[in-house]
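Q: What would this chain look like folded?
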Amino acid sequence: MTTPRPSPPCDRAAALRAVVGLVLPVDCVGCGVPDRALCDTCRTHVAARPPRVRLIAGVRTDAAFEYEGLVRTLVLELKLRSRVDLAGPLARRFGALVRRALAEAPDGTVVLRVPPSARGARRRGFDPVVLLLRRGRAPVGSALVRCDGRSGGGGRRAGAGARSGNGQKERTATERVAATVGALRAVGVAGRTVVLVDDVVTTGVTLAEAVRAVRAAGGTVVRCVAVASVED
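A: My prediction, written as structure tokens:
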């Protein structure tokens, strides 16, 4: 009597990807391999990219990645096309950096994020930074307040806000400075230490304004953390 061979173990993840690929065809944004939003090879490539460190307004700024190549593609797909299925590789390292910044900061340090432009928030319907913080298992911080006074998280607690306006990427360096200085305010941070978070740091003008706002409100920024940074 022939003993039947045991069935190979079921790769549930592969099976799920196969079914999803039939219903919602997708190609890897990095190399075009079918049925994967981001294939294993491209994930490995992203994971191998080094983090970046720069100084903005006298504060150490840790960026999970340099804003180039495949990382830039992932960020743009998330922000412009709401591709939340691509958030994982960005969120893991970003969240880890935020958690490390808090671990190295004094007790009671709060997380504040630089809010997106009003136009970007309306278009997407979600804040990419909040999404990445949550998926990266990092605190999203206290309520975030825009200058119109509306709370982003259930009450007027520690927060920073930005006046509505056009996206920074559409302005010249001089216009960015003119539009940004005085555009942010911090609430409820007097006597507190703060970790500031943002998505992409280019010239650093917006993040420098956020640091200024916290200092003007009596707080101290101990670290800035970004998803990606343009090499300066």
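Strands lie at 52-56, 59-66, 110-113, 159-162, 184-187, 193-201, 220-229.
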